[in-house]
Amino acid sequence: MQNGVSFGLPYRRPRIAKPEDLPHLGEISALGFKESDVFRYARPKGDEFFQDAVASFTNWFRSQMLDKRALILVTEDWQPNEPDDYDPSFPLTGTAKEGEGKRVVVGVSAWYLPQESRRVGKFVSPAADVPDEVPSEDRDLCKERLDIFRKVKDEAECKYFKDIGPKNYEIDPRKSIRPTIICNKIVVHPAFQRLGHATAMLRWIQQLCNCDCLKQGVISPRAVEPLFRKVGYETIGEMQVPDDGDVRGFTQHVMWCHWIPAKVPV
Ligand SMILES: CC(C)(COP(=O)(O)OP(=O)(O)OC[C@H]1O[C@@H](n2cnc3c(N)ncnc32)[C@H](O)[C@@H]1OP(=O)(O)O)[C@@H](O)C(=O)NCCC(=O)NCCS
């Protein structure tokens, strides 16, 4: 039982992130997103100033830990004891046999609850436990492009997912029957991908949504759509990030997933 919700899940059981996980969350995100369109677009010097990207992701997760509407889930896996054995270029060697290595956080997802959710405030970390922001010079970042991306994403979320952001968007009533929990990020350390970590986090959220009659929404890179489709999401729209100077823009897909009534009321 966690925060009033009971989840009987298979092998990789996600848990709510703790303040001590923060350094891992920044690192996993920077490593996992490094090849993504958003990273290429907004962090053109990401290779050169990789630690600045780690710091800025760490600070973003820190802000979410203090936000009453945010929910951060993590999954863990076994990492071999000897650092020399660890070969991130070959994913399946990332894991050790259960019990033989060290358990480390390898996956993280960040969710945003609708304001009417009864879980608001239930997953927040006590402020006293959350460390200070880490210094970040943002030398990797093109702030203007990050702002463009955030603006386009905010507009798409407002248009499709009803209750977050400004209310002055025309909403298709078919799409706003229920409040929606938004997936802001989901990322798995490259050495531990395709092992079911993302699926485990999505299933955890799905059970929460089934209990609470919430829809789920995400704006997903096109390449990652199969992950979401596999757990029941469908594509309902498109979001276009414009070209900016020499840098190509890109398209992402807006997806959502309906809740299924829980068999046992909670
Ligand atoms: C997308 C991501 C989170 C998936 O994590 P994962 O733990 O490897 O996913 P799972 O092992 O649960 O995959 C389940 C299924 O989703 C699909 N899938 C997963 N990753 C995929 C990818 N990169 N491309 C296409 N399909 C993918 C597959 O169908 C997979 O099933 P299979 O392995 O049996 O073929 C991970 O690849 C990642 O961190 N990518 C970079 C960050 C990112 O783009 N995040 C999404 C937007 S916020």
Account of the 3D structure:
- It is a single chain.
- This protein is of the alpha+beta class.
- It is 28% helix and 21% strand.
- The chain contains six helices and seven strands; from the N terminus they run E-H-H-H-E-E-H-E-H-E-H-E-E.
- Helix 5 links the parallel strand 4 and strand 5.
- The longest helix is centred in the middle third of the chain and has 18 residues, at 143-160.
- It is globular and about 50 Å long.
- The chain starts with 14 loop residues before the first strand and ends in a 9-residue tail after the last strand.
- The relative contact order is 0.18.
- Bound molecules: coenzyme A.
- Coenzyme A (COA) binds at residues 32-33, 36, 107, 185-188, 193-199, 220-221, 223-224, 226-227, 230.
